[in-house]
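agent> step 3/5: call structure_predict on target 'DNA-3-methyladenine glycosylase' (Rhodonellum psychrophilum GCM71 = DSM 17998).
agent> reason: downstream docking stage needs a structural representation; sequence fetched in step 2, passing through unchanged.
tool.input:
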Amino acid sequence: MNRPQDPEKHRCPWCLGFEQYIQYHDEEWGVPVYEDSIHFEFLILESAQAGLSWATILKKREGYRNAFADFDYKIVAEFPDGYVQELLQNPGIIRNVLKIKAAINNAKRFMEIQSEFGSFSNYIWDFVDGQPIQRKLTKLQEVVATIPESDRLAKDLKKRGFKFLGSTTIYAHMQATGLVNDHFVDCFRHEEVKLLQK
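tool.output (status=ok):
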């Protein structure tokens, strides 16, 4: 069901679709995230997205929440091979064995980063010097798939053993979790999100 558009609210052009997408744009996308549990949730969802649309993943978000222990990385890191086979039969998620195994691997690597840096949040925010990058998009032609910061972060994550998290996927993560404010300047959320930085 499409959500009626408030005439006084301009939104980023990509989100004008189904209700869940608009709600995600209005309430979550671009909000600075400092909680490791939320970072892990988005890493799971974004690695699952590779080759698919974000709309597809949003529709399966609750399926992932149920299948991946409410995104508890400590539990996901210990998923046995038998559960992987069970997940491959679960229509609530993307049934791709490489992506499922990557999620388990990434949970282990995630905790290694926590041990080294105190939290995953400390680690990832260091790539933007602790402050969100404020981009000022005015037209779709200015949208990019990667930025130098996502290149560096993806390269470091790969070196640390993470899977299915290339620069494009990591840039999506940075946008989603507020390391980058990529709301269009005429979107009502641009200034709201900008005010949320520490």
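agent> step 4/5: record observation. The mean pLDDT is 94.
agent> proceeding.
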